[in-house]
Recover the amino acids of this structure.
């Protein structure tokens, strides 16, 4: 087949749409979102559906000890490296339909188009659903395991709690050992490509079709527990109290002020609190909060971490409280491969789509893969920038554009040379 | 029997101690406290135990449509009014062994002593365990139902949540109708007496044996929900966020400052928060908080209520959030009967115990009864003032002193006149 013919190849948007609608029913919430926390029943049902679809289309299928599920197409010569395409089918609790799902379905669609066209590429293709991208358990669990960068500590003290992790592992038939044993030899990987919704409003605000991702922020999470003295909320005078809520609330307010004042590119979130014992008439004896913060540069992330922990200690002292600090995990910031960025931009140009280069404020599996092979990401616009919410929405035409850019990027990558060789320095 | 002989009557402290230790095993927590939320399994087990003890001692037993459990002694002439003695066997979640339990057991012990001595009094005696004093469901539920002052709204929107209430009612065989139908005709009540631990440090700090309670603070509770926009915690810039946690936290800090600055006799507590959806990487879309505040005067309670609601609206506006306000209930402040206070003081004097008059910062069932009959309360010292905690502790000698003052107050009350008539103005 000639390059001209390849340039005119498009994904089947009717088939992609049918898949998208079917998948959105799995773990659907009444408000139009989905609830598919990693390794929960709905996530496992989505994976079973994905496997059925792949096998029905005559694609190969593989799963690994971290639960990662892949549709496989042997379109390269024997022993050729694999170009991974993927994203994730898990969602945050009560999240949206697009986040992750679009990338997995577009990857599957690319495999089908290549298969139907009978293209011989210098690489094999694999459409992969990575386990626990969202961090209900650990965050980037499947992709870090595959890259061989998963820290065993993150399994011992996962940010979602060891009980939740153990229950998910039991449900999916995984163990700590199986997860830690799935590293793939980078020599077997040609690279990684991921299509994702932007989850911010930059593309929509600028009226641009496609975002070419330059790098991904790093993030770090902690569970901070302020400890005071549970006591009667009627008989204990205000001055006598050691109210754990005061420390937790003061920290939450000041952390926002700190980041807004001193960390222009950073963000901080207190996403959850748990009060103990938790009653109207008892002064909180302990308040545990879920803290996450991000920065595009590793050094800034370090500095932000130190500042936030100092702030927590300071606020605990102000209110006469104790502080327990539990590290929950860290993802290093990642730069994405410049040559892959260029391929994505060329693919968009070839399709007549406008594009802009931009960093990602969200973590993605591409971050794990970027440590061991050439990795690239492209974004399509999120209406209103809404994300991690049932209100998340991307126009269908943009979803189709993204899938076509993914397909064309794969074809351009394959055209580079007979070994699809971008892997010199990995 | 002569008055001199009555003055020398004492409760059986060995028997009281055995009861106390047995009861503390029901719902016991590993840290030495008890977990007996109202109408939960442990609370129902405690009631079954109480009933067994009463019946084993040959006392009568009654239960009513609000679940209140009573041991009864017909020691008065036919048609005589009943002098209620009591408190509650429920606890706050993971609370202490003394709160409520001491008052019920001392009441039971008074009945046994009167029964054994064969005393004929001008009143009948009833040792009552009131349902849900602590407010896991509604607060003062059983005593308000008995007094006829229970607001049906509090059953429809109970502060513990309607599901928890319904589950408890089902477990105990109660219905809204049965609860609302248990009012007793005040003409049948001679009055109410309650022994309780102080739950504050005033008696301990002053080295005084007994507190004669002058009145009980009123309290009011609300569920306040700050609503923003759930969104991705990495991709949404700090400036763009509508973070519900910011409003909830600012309110929690400012409410404390407000009360400390302007409400010397008042207290405020944010005892619980619930974040939605509640994840490290999602900006909180909604945070619901459990608010309770107290004041000894009704007018001050009104003013504090208005100030706190205004503060919540102000903080919601500051952070661009919505606010949902759900009233959860109110208990009016109560003055306790001056003549009963005097009887308690005389009883303490007769026992050679020091005493002091003081208001109660905690709500008590006496508050409900004070609206329909002469009611009195006495406190014994709480070590360190610790309450609503497994660390709650009262020296055993003080528990015995309190039970003896309760017994002697009953005997002095009975001596007043042949009708034990304190009920003129009720």
């Amino acid at each position: 087949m000639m390059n001209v013919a390849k340039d005119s190849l498009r994904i089947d948007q009717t088939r992609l749409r049918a898949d998208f609608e079917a998948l959105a029913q799995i773990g659907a919430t009444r408000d139009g979102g989905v609830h598919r926390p990693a390794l929960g029943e709905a996530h496992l049902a989505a994976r079973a559906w994905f496997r059925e679809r792949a096998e029905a289309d005559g694609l190969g299928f593989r799963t690994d000890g971290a639960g990662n599920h892949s549709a496989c197409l042997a379109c390269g010569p024997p022993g050729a490296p694999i170009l991974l395409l993927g994203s994730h089918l898990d969602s945050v609790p009560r999240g949206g339909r697009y986040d992750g799902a679009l990338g997995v379905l577009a990857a599957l669609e690319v495999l089908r188009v290549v298969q139907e066209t009978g293209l011989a590429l210098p690489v094999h293709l694999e459409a992969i659903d990575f386990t626990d991208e969202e961090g209900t358990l650990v965050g980037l669990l499947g992709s870090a395991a595959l890259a061989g960068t998963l820290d065993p500590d993150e399994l011992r003290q996962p940010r979602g709690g060891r009980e939740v992790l153990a229950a998910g592992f039991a449900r999916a038939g995984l163990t700590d050992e199986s997860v830690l044993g799935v590293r793939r030899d980078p020599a077997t990987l040609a690279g990684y490509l991921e299509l994702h919704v932007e989850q911010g409003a930059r593309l929509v605000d600028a009226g641009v079709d496609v975002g070419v991702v330059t790098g991904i922020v790093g993030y770090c999470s902690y569970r901070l527990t302020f400890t005071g003295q549970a006591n009667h909320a009627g008989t204990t005078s205000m001055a006598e109290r050691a109210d754990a809520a005061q420390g937790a609330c003061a920290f939450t307010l000041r952390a926002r002020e700190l980041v807004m004042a001193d960390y222009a590119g950073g963000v901080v979130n207190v996403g959850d609190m748990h009060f103990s014992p938790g009653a109207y008439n008892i002064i909180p004896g302990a308040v545990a909060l879920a803290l996450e913060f991000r920065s595009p540069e590793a050094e800034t992330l370090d500095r932000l971490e130190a500042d936030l922990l100092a702030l927590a200690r300071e606020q605990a002292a102000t209110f006469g409280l104790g502080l327990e600090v539990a590290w929950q995990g860290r993802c290093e910031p990642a730069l994405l491969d410049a040559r892959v960025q260029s391929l994505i931009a060329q693919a968009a140009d070839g399709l007549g789509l406008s594009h802009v280069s931009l960093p990602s404020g969200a973590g993605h599996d591409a971050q794990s893969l970027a440590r061991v092979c050439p990795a690239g990401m492209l974004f399509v616009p999120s209406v209103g920038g809404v994300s991690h919410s049932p209100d998340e929405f991307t126009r269908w035409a943009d979803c189709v554009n993204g899938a076509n850019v993914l397909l064309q990027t794969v074809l351009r990558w394959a055209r580079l040379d007979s070994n699809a060789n971008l892997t010199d320095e990995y």
The first strand of chain A starts at residue 60 and ends at 63. Chain A touches chain B through 70 residues (CB under 8 Å). The first helix of chain A runs from residue 3 to 7. Chain A is about 40% helix and 20% strand.
